[in-house]
Design a protein that fits this description.
With 389 residues, the chain is of the alpha+beta class. The chain folds into two domains: 54 residues, no CATH class; 242 residues, Nucleotidyltransferase, domain 5, CATH 3.30.420. It has a six-stranded mixed sheet with strand order 6-5-4-7-10-11, sandwiched between helices. It has a three-stranded antiparallel sheet with strand order 1-2-3, with no helix packed on it. The chain is globular, with a radius of gyration of 23 Å. The chain starts with 30 loop residues before the first strand and ends with a helix.
């Protein structure tokens, strides 16, 4: 419960009621201090009362806020849950609940600040991590913007299928401000090319058309006995001149690569204790990995300065002007309208995927021989499936 020692300022609050006409609006003169002892505010329009913690991670918690923030900070740096339980004398279920609450809060922050179609994307890399639970295997897809090192999106699900790639790239699309010259680098997974074309296309006069400046690069690594034998870079869509321009603007190397997203994968494995290989504290539930991913990704974006950029990725992307404290992240209040939009976007992810645009709509000049071979393989696979069924 909020105590009377906390400073109350009605001008900083907005009504969290979705049905209120002034919902999500500050400085409208409709918020009054209702009870200083319990720290409650009241909206004069809908007459609902609420606290400054309503809609944040700290809502309804009785433990001191300082203790909660310390525990969440340790979790964000990879401290195992059992170690926190032993040191602070807390119940394991309490710490797990705080981790899930923090992950849900970080997802709201990510949706309200990053996934708002206002970023100028130049070079995006995507990859997936194989996650080993106690009795099941999960897959975590991640995407980032290279020039700012900003974590854009993440998906955790059981199957490594087309749905994973589609959901991941659709969330990346929600971060982009509009049509621009964009380089997307991925590994050799066959589901990525179609997912990229679906995500970065729109309806035009001639039907579904891909962004004219879209460039797709693929890195195929060959291994033998867990040792790297060869690396092959393939330009699936776009021209060499456009590729070099994007790489130069993003400072993302001199050729097609996935080095930056692989480093982010390493950061995830380092800071999310349940992702540590051969550990004794693996999670049972998929949601535990999901909320942990959002906690690590959001604090990585807003709180921890990048050692190469000397600022946080959010500052490098122009989203914020300072490094956020962990308290700022956990107490950030998202307007109800943005929450409703995020829920609608999540429902749209579950809808059937739109058709993939034809190759002639996305390739300038002659199509890549590797991409044509990829299309032939997919046609053969579809033919085999129709015969077997």
């Amino acid at each position: 419960m909020q105590t009377s020692t906390e400073v109350m300022d009605a001008t900083l609050e907005f009504c969290p009621n979705e049905t209120c006409p002034a919902s999500g609006l500050r400085n409208q003169g409709n918020i009054r201090i209702h009870d200083r002892h319990r720290g409650r505010y009241r909206c004069t329009i809908c007459r609902r009362t609420f606290t400054a913690r309503t809609g944040t991670m700290l809502e309804g918690l009785r433990k001191p806020a300082e203790l909660v923030i310390i525990v969440v900070g340790l979790l964000a740096y990879g401290c195992p849950l059992q170690a926190i339980v032993h040191v602070f004398g807390l119940d394991e279920r309490t710490v797990a609940a705080w981790r899930d609450r923090a992950g849900q809060q970080c997802r709201r922050v990510q949706q309200a600040v990053v996934e708002q179609e206002h970023l100028s994307l130049t070079h995006v890399q995507a990859d997936e991590i194989r996650v080993k639970g106690k009795k099941e295997i999960f897959w975590m897809g991640l995407a980032m913007e290279v020039s700012s090192r900003l974590w854009l999106a993440g998906i955790v699900q059981v199957a490594r299928d087309q749905n994973l790639a589609d959901r991941l790239l659709q969330r990346v699309r929600r971060c982009a401000s509009g049509i621009s010259q964009l380089l997307v680098c991925v590994d050799g997974w066959l589901c990525y090319p179609d997912a990229i074309l679906r995500a970065f296309s729109q309806w035009g006069k001639r039907g579904i058309q891909v962004w004219p400046g879209l460039i797709i690069g693929q890195v195929i690594k060959t291994q033998k006995h867990y040792h790297l034998e060869s690396v092959k870079q393939t330009l699936l869509c776009g021209e060499e001149k456009e590729l070099k321009a994007c790489l130069e603007r993003s400072r993302g190397g001199t050729q097609i690569n996935t080095a930056y997203i692989e480093r982010l994968n390493g950061t995830m494995r380092e800071r999310l204790a349940s992702l540590t290989r051969k550990c004794r504290h693996a999670n049972w539930r998929l949601l535990a990995f999901q909320w942990g991913m959002y906690l690590i990704g959001c604090t990585y974006n807003f709180c921890w300065p990048h050692h190469e950029l000397e600022q946080t990725p959010a500052m490098a992307a122009g989203i914020t002007d300072h490094a956020w404290s962990l308290r700022e992240v956990l107490t950030y209040k998202v307007p109800p309208a943005l929450l409703a939009k995020a829920r609608a976007d999540e429902q749209q992810e579950l809808a059937p995927a739109p058709p993939v645009p034809h190759l002639s709509q996305c390739v300038r000049g002659n199509p890549s021989p590797a991409y044509l071979a990829l299309l032939r393989l997919k046609e053969q696979e579809a033919g085999l499936r129709s015969i077997t069924t």
